[in-house]
Amino acid sequence: MSILRSPSGRGSSQPHLSILNTETTDIQYITFRTKKKHPEHDCISCEQFADFRKEMTSILRDFVESQNKILASLVATNEKIDKFEANIEVLNIKSDNKSIAIDLSCDEIFSELQERYLREKNLTIVGVPEAKGENSKQRSASNTGEVLKVIKITFPECPDPIQVRRIGKYSP
How far apart are CA 1 and CA 30, in angstroms? Predict the structure, then answer.
């Protein structure tokens, strides 16, 4: 197949493609192609793709909305933190003047807490018969024995008491 050159006369190498050279015998081999026809798409797959696209779009919208809510929550939290920091600074300035008084009250509070911790382990038993004797050591031993009896009957797994004291005055 030979192609005629454009008759511009300048010697350009661009061929004139709309004109065929009829001098050659290759014309019988020339075919004109038509546009490639695509097989018809299945309408169901097009609908499925459209549905999928809608679902993805809604998922993305929901995601963006949730991200915006999280961002708003984060901004609100940061504002609260800023307010708390400002309040703490104000309290620190006020407390610098009263630090000595606070230190004393902290010691008092600490001793009160220690006392409460020790008292919460106390056990008061009412109705234990009082021993009659002149010696305080004998009465104390009798009280300890009576308390041990009551504890072992009531709470068999309870450990022995460390100290036993009678409340009130001794009346012979």
Answer: 8
Residues 130, 145: Cα–Cα separation, whole Å: 11
Instruction: Name the burial class of residue 141, with classes exposed (0-12), middle (13-18) and buried (19+) by CB atoms within 10 angstroms of its CB.
Output: middle
97 shares its domain with 130: no
Beta carbons of 117 and 134 less than 8 angstroms apart: no
Tell if the pTM clears 0.70, that is, is over it: no
Q: Are the C-beta atoms of 25 and 17 separated by less than 8 Å?
A: no
Name the domain count of the chain: 2
Which pair of structure tokens corresponds to residue 106? 């902290």
Give the domain range for residue 96. Answer: 43-106
- Per residue in 135-164, pLDDT (tens digit) is 888 888 888 888 888 888 888 888 888 888
Residue 115 phi/psi, 5-degree rounding, is -60, -45
